[in-house]
Amino acid sequence: MKASNPFWREQLIDQIEPELAREIDIYETEIELRKQGKIDEKLFAETRLRRGAYGQRYDNGQRWDGQETQILQYPSTELTKGPNTVWDAPGMQRIKIPFGGLNARQLEVMADLAEEYSDGIAHVTTRQDFQLHFISIDDTPALMRRLAAVGITTREACGNSVRNVTACPYSGICGDEAFDVTPYAHALSQFLNGHPDTQDFGRKFKIAFSGCKDKGCGLVNMHDLGAIAVRRIETGVEKRGFELYVGGGLGSVPHQAKLFDTFLPEEELLPTSQAIARVFARLGEKKNRNRARIKFLVAQLGLEEFKRLVLEERALLPPDPEWTAFLNDLHAHDEQPLRPAASLNGAARPEGFDRWARTNIFRQKQSRYVTVTVTLPLGDATGTQLRGLADIARRCTRETIRTTVEQNIVLRWVSEADLPEVYAALKALGLEQPGAGTILDVTSCPGTDTCKLGIASSRGLAGELRIRLAEKSHTLDEAIQDLRIKVSGCFNSCGQHHVADLGFYGVSRHSGGYTVPYFQVVLGGQWTENAGSFGLAMGAIPSKNIPEVVERLTGRYVSERLKGESFQAFIKRIGKVEIKKMLDDLTRLPPHDQDASFYSDWGDTREFTIGDMGVGECAGEVVSRVEFDLAAAEREVFEAQVLLDKGEAQKAGEMAYASMVQAAKALVKEQFYDVPDDTDRIVSEFRTRFYDTQLFWDPFAGGKFGHYLLRAHDKHAEPATHEVARQRIEEAQLVVEAAYSCYGRMQAAKPPVKVKA
C-alpha cells in the first residue's frame, strides 16, 4: 500500500536538495489550487508538464479503477461532472535521466514507483528517459520526492522546455570516440535545467551529444542542438571542442541540423548554448505551435543570420563561473571496474549464450571489458526485472548503468570472464533476449496505448514484427541483421521513423463506412552518421499488411543487392516506382465481410476508431514567462493566507510582500529582460516603468494598487501584527490582479515581432 504525500515529505526532507524540495512543495500547492479552481487550466497544464506530469489517452472510457468511471481529459477543465467522474484520471509521469546514467539504488526506486503508483511497468523512451503510466496526479508530489531523494528530477521533462539531454551510451568506453562526452552532457543538462533563459520558449528544445561522427548512437542531426566531440592541435597543444549543430528535428516536417561551428572550444559550450536559448526565446514563434521549434527559426533567418544573432548575444552575456567550473573536474564522471579484467578462457557457456553474445556484447576500448546490452522489448521492464538488474550491476560492476535511445539498458564495465554469470542472471529475469541493435530490436513510441495523438497502434505493430522476426532469427540473412525498424503512432516521429531503414507511422483511411488503421511506409532513413539522412514516405498500407511489407523489402534486398550495397543505396537504386509496384497489391483493403480483421488494430479486437483522440500535450499551450511569474505571485498570496491561519503573522506579511515584488518583477522583466534579482532595483524599475508612467494604473481602480507595493516596500522590515498581515495579503491580491490586467493591456498593444528574412 502506498503511503501518503505528507509521509514522504517528512520522511525525505533531509535527503532532498532544499531548492528542489521547495519546488515540489509549490507544485503540490498548485495542484490544490487547481482543484479549487484558483489556477487557470491552461496555466496549470503547462505547470504540470514542466514537472513531467503528462495527460494520457483512455480508449472508449477504459476502466482503470474497477468501476464504470467516466474518464475526463487529464486533468479535466470540468472539476465536477456527476458522482462517477474523477478529476485526476491517471496520466503519465516522465522522469529525466541525463545521458541515461543510473546507479543501482535509482533503478530500485524506479521499480518501487512502478509497482506502487503505476501498472508495474517502467518504460524506457527514445530519449533515455523513464516513463510511468496510469499515475494519479495526487501521487505525483510523493513520487517526485522519492526520486529527488536519490538524485533524480522530473523538472522540465515535458513542456516548452529543454528536454532530457541525451548522449551516446558508450561514451568513455568506445574506441571510435574523440573523447568522453559524459561530463559535458551532464554539465549542460545541469546548467540549462530551470535556467531563467530557457523559460520562455514556444516549444520544446532537445539536445544530444555524440563522441564520434560515424555511428548513430547520438543522433545529433535530428536535434535542436547537437554536439559531436572533436579534437585538434593548436600551437602544439591538443584541444577539445565540438562540431556544433543547430536546427534539427523530426516531427511531421523533419529538418536536418545545420553545422553552426566546426570547432566550438569546450569552454564555449555552455555560454554558446545559453546564447542560442536566448535567441530562440526572443525570436522563436509563440502563437503557431506548428512552427514554434527552433528549426523553423533557423530556416527563416538563414544559418548565417542566426549565427550572427547568437554570437552577438554571446558577447553581451555577463560572465558566469558555471560556464567553466565543470572543466576543472572532468574526471568526476570517470568509471572504474569492480572486478579484474579477465577473458573467458574457454569457460563453459550456458545454452543460448553464444547467440546472445553475438548481438548483445559491445567490446570496450578497455581490454577484456565489455558492455552488456539488456534488450527490453518495446522498452518495458517490470519492477522485479529492474531490481534484478540493480543486483547484477552491484555484483558485477560499480553500478555503471545507462539507458539507450533504442529503449534498452546497458551494463558497462563487465569483465569478460563474468559474462556467463551475467547471462544466467539475465535469463532468470527473462531478459536474455538476443538481437540488441539488430532488425529484431524494433523501436516504438507509445502510440494509441496511451498517447492522445496516436492514430494507429505502433506498439502493437512493433510487437508483432518483433515476434515474427524472432521466429526466423536463425535463418535471417546477415545483410539485414543490422537494419533498424522504427514505428510511430502518428506523423510526429516520436518513434524516430524518419531515421530508420524501415520506418512506419500511423494514419487512417475510410472505407465502406469504416475507419481503418494504416501505416505510411518510410524508406531511405539512415541511423548511422548520427542520423545522416531522413527517409521519405512511400505510401499507406493497411496495418495488417505491414509484416508482409517487411518480408518483401528485406527479401528483395537480400536477393538483389550489389556487393557492399547499403539498404539506403539499394532503395535509391531500384527507385520509388519499382517499390510502389512491388507493394501495390498490399495497399488494397478487403471488404469488411471478407476479412474483418483488417478493420481492427494490432492487439485490439474492437473495431478501429480515432474518435477517442485528444489534444496532444507534447509541450502544452504556449505560456509566457510573465504568466508563470504572475501565477507564482498568486500562489504566494495563497501561501500567505495559510501562514496567517496558522498564526504566523510575521511570515504571512513577508510572503504577501514577496508576492507583490514577484508580480512587479514579472512586468519589469517583460520590458527589461536582465533586471537584477535585487528587490530595491525591481521596485525602482517598477516605479519608473509602470507606476510613474501610469501604465500599471487600472482604469477601474484609479491606479492606487501600485501604491500598495511601494508602501509595502517602505514598511516591509517593520513587525507585522495579525491585522497588518491580513491587510497586506488583501493588498497583495489586488496588486497581482492589477498586474494581470496590465499585462493583458500590454499584450493587446504589442505589435507582432518581425525578424529579418
Walk me through this protein's architecture:
With 757 residues, this protein is α+β, with helices and mostly antiparallel strands. The protein has five domains: 5-148, no CATH class; 174-331, Sulfite Reductase Hemoprotein, domain 1; 353-429, Alpha-Beta Plaits (2-Layer Sandwich); 443-599, Sulfite Reductase Hemoprotein, domain 1; 625-749, Four Helix Bundle (Hemerythrin (Met), subunit A). It has 22 helices and 22 strands. α19 (649-671) crosses α20 (679-691), α19 packs across α21 and α19 runs parallel beside α22. The longest helix is centred in the last third of the chain and has 28 residues, at 722-749. The radius of gyration is 27 Å and the shape is globular.
Q: What are the main properties of this structure?
A:
5-stranded antiparallel β-sheet; alpha+beta; Sulfite Reductase Hemoprotein, domain 1; 5 domains; Alpha-Beta Plaits; 22 strands; 38% helix; 757 residues
Summarize it:
With 757 residues, the protein is of the alpha+beta class.
- Approximate strand percentage: 5-15%
Biggest sheet details:
5 strands, antiparallel
Instruction: Write the CATH fold name of the largest domain.
Output: Sulfite Reductase Hemoprotein, domain 1
The amount of helix comes to 25-40%
| Global outline | globular
User: Strands across the major sheet, in which order?
Assistant: 1-4-7-6-15
Rg (C-alpha, Å): 27 Å
Count of all domains: 5
Span of the ends, CA to CA = 59 Å
Name of the CATH class of the largest domain: Alpha Beta
CATH homologous superfamily identity of the largest domain: Sulfite Reductase Hemoprotein, domain 1
